[in-house]
């Protein structure tokens, strides 16, 4: 068999014409799945400022109450314009928590039972919940209804991420590059499309309704574009053995490299001996999770720092002298961040970073710098923040895609599918902790 067009990691196209077409078709399918899966999640964060502002208006149909005695402003805005910061009464971190906590709960629990749910049904649930999220937020008349819509987006994104990451083990490892790039594309597409359409004059409600096309694209990408192995359990709960793809063809499942028992135990970080065949039991899954901590912790730290910035600090970095309004500045912060994410999540095609811990440290430096900038207000203009958030996105996207690629290459075939799903809790855990931290921080700054 001609393998001349494959490198050692299996990231290049197979030699045969038919195999090569299927290879790139699957990469393209995973790109679209990554984009569609994260799209609603990203849009809800980009719309967070508008969602809260809209509901503050909707919940006051009668003339507004008199301003507090210490408010010397005559502004009609519901923002806190009497203090140092132009704040919404509710932090955008509230939207972040609604957008991530359901995802975190799914990622903590689902890896232990999700194997019993067929992939086809999982994707169908993702499509339905994503559709519901756009509809609920579009037609919302209260804060709780908007938050419920955000929760549906979270369920769709969380279930989809762990399912699609697990699904990659049935395909050539190159589909991880497509998935990572697609999730980065979701950030840019969601943030830029929302910012562009609203700035062009569409209301946030109409903009969200336009995005109902996204769940349709997800269905087409999964059910019609992907080329599945013949034995893949699409609608049955039976567990198929993941295939190792060599030269684009599905061959009998076998280890990618020969490892003796000692090496396998060292990779898992535990002295417990794992069986070489059969379904993983609960104890084995716990052993695998212990070995995954070295991947999960750095990823959680990166995401804690960057979402602490995005949902706790960016709303407070407002430059009144800019030609952009507060809402527009917030949207473009999110957009530049997502462009950075797209660039770095697509970098796996040409660049590999093994030391994710370094990225975690650099992201923490960003968080400290911008916290000081909010408190001391020493940054000169909005463009400085735009550069920093672009760099922040580069760090976060690189940490994500390189973490999962490392897991894919450093775990055995038998535990790889579970490992990809279980490790996905890292980013959600970091984001959840950042949201919980950002809420009291927002209250503190807005009270100054």
From TrEMBL:
Region Disordered, residue ranges: 57-86, 247-271
Organism of this sequence: Clupea harengus (Atlantic herring)
Membrane topology according to the record: Multi-pass membrane protein
Name of this protein: Battenin
UniProt feature, compositional bias: Low complexity: 71-82
Acidic residues: compositionally biased ranges: 258-267
Gene Ontology biological process terms in this record: lysosome organization; regulation of intracellular pH
Localisation per UniProt entry: Endomembrane system; Lysosome membrane
Gene assigned in the entry: cln3
UniProt cross-references to Gene3D superfamilies, sorted A to Z: MFS general substrate transporter like domains
Record-stated family: Belongs to the battenin family.
Main location class: membrane
Transmembrane segments: 29-48, 119-137, 143-167, 174-194, 206-228, 292-310, 355-376, 382-401
CC terms in the record's Gene Ontology section: endomembrane system; lysosomal membrane
InterPro entries from the UniProt entry: Battenin_disease_Cln3, Battenin_disease_Cln3_subgr, MFS_trans_sf
Source organism, top-level taxon: Eukaryota
Pro residues composition-biased segments: 61-70
Keywords: Lysosome, Membrane, Transmembrane, Transmembrane helix, Transport
């Amino acid at each position: 068999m001609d393998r001349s067009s494959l490198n050692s990691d299996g990231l290049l196209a197979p030699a045969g014409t038919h195999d090569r077409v299927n290879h790139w078709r699957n990469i393209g399918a995973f790109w679209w799945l990554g984009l569609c899966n994260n799209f609603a999640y990203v849009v809800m964060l980009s719309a967070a400022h508008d969602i809260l502002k809209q509901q503050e208006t909707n919940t006051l149909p009668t003339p507004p109450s008199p301003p507090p005695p210490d408010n010397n402003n005559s502004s009609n805005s519901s923002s806190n314009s009497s203090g140092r910061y132009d704040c919404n009464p509710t932090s955008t971190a509230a939207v972040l928590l609604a957008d991530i906590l359901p995802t975190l709960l799914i990622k903590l629990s689902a890896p232990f039972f999700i194997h019993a749910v067929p992939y086809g049904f999982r994707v169908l649930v993702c499509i339905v919940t994503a559709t519901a999220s756009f509809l609920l937020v579009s037609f919302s008349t209260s804060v709780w209804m908007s938050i419920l819509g955000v929760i549906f987006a979270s369920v769709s994104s969380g279930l989809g991420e762990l399912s699609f990451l697990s699904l990659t083990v049935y395909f050539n490892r190159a589909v991880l590059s497509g998935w990572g790039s697609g999730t980065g594309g979701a950030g840019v597409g969601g943030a830029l499309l929302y910012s562009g359409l609203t700035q062009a004059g569409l209301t946030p409600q109409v903009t969200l309704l336009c995005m109902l096309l996204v769940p349709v694209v997800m269905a087409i990408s999964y059910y019609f574009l992907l080329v599945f192995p013949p034995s893949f359990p699409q609608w049955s709960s039976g567990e198929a053995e993941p295939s190792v793809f060599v030269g684009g063809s599905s061959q009998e499942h076998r280890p990618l490299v020969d490892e003796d028992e000692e090496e396998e135990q060292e990779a898992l970080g535990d002295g417990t001996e794992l069986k070489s065949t059969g379904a993983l039991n609960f104890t084995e899954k716990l052993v695998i999770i212990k070995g995954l901590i070295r991947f999960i912790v750095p990823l959680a730290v990166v995401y804690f720092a960057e979402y602490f910035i995005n949902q706790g600090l960016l709303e407070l970095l407002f430059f009144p002298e800019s030609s952009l309004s507060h809402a527009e500045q917030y949207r473009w912060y999110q957009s530049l961040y997502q462009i950075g994410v797209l660039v770095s999540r697509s970098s796996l095609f040409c660049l590999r970073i093994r030391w994710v811990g370094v990225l975690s440290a650099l992201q923490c430096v960003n968080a400290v710098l911008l916290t000081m900038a909010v408190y001391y207000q020493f940054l000169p203009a909005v463009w400085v923040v735009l550069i920093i958030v672009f760099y922040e996105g580069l760090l976060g996207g690189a940490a994500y895609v390189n973490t999962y690629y490392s897991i894919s290459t450093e775990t055995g075939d038998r535990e790889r599918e579970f490992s990809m799903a279980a490790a996905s809790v890292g980013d959600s855990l970091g984001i959840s902790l950042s949201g919980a931290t950002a809420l009291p921080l927002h209250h503190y700054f807005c009270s100054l």
